[in-house]
Design brief:
Elements (H helix, E strand, L loop, with lengths): L1 H16 L23 H14 L3 H8 L3 H21 L8 H8 L6 E10 L6 H7 E2 L4 E10 L5 E4 L3 E2 L4 H8 L7 E4 L12 E4 L12 H13 L1 H10 L16 H24 L1
Parallel strand pairs: 1-6, 6-7
Antiparallel strand pairs: 1-3, 2-3, 3-4, 3-5
Length: 280
Amino acid sequence: MTLLYEFGPLCKQYFQHHDLEGNPRRIPKFAEDARCSLAGSFNKLLFLLTYLKENPRQHYHGKLWGMKQPRVSKWVKLLLPLLEQALSRLRVLPKRFGSQLYAFLLSFTRFVLLMDATERHIPRSVDYERQKHEYSGKKKMHTVKNNLITDQRGKILFLSSTYPGSVHDKTIADHAGHQFPDHTVLVEDLGYLGYGPENVSVLIPNKKPKNGELSKEEKLDNRHISQIRIPVEHVMSGVKRLNIAKEKIRIRVKDARDKIMMVACGLHNLRNTLRKNCNN
């Protein structure tokens, strides 16, 4: 209901001044059309959340809601930005720029941050150069990827822009232009080998040498670092509760893949916040 209280007024405001096609109305409309295929804010929110959760084929989702596939596509494109705005009003969306994260972290005297990357499967593009850029050699498939920074309590503080699968994790971190306050501890995996701002203490696993073995002390250090990194693995699992962030994303609309990841992170933070409030 917390999400609906923010989502509902945004829907009403939007449809007062726009139609389903996104065209502005000449005269504001204050009563919803009785023939609307998704009547009421509750149904609109339920329609979008079930679509994100299950990641169904649009013609199948349309059968459940009594509409054809083109109408499903229009509703998803229209409602997704409204859901993102609702999550923004609830202040659960992660920061998108390194400067924003820095300003947020200044309120803390010492902070332990966990950095990791996540990849999502996408269809192979028919354009040869584009599909080559989107191919991930690590995953052996076409993907898009994002970097995430979380705290030890499972809150996503930062989400990078969405990059093609061929871009290295460290390159994404470099492009973000991160600045961290002094005394910050940054816990990374080997994908960020070589990345570390000067004023930050970096914890990264020991890399196994070529044709060699790690010592017992190095293996023990790696085990301790893995234990510290457990919260970020739980975060990844929480984000991928939405199957659309876990399975192949079939939506090809510009910026839709980035918005889906942003919404998935916001829903995780909202769920995490509500759970903590209930425990308190």
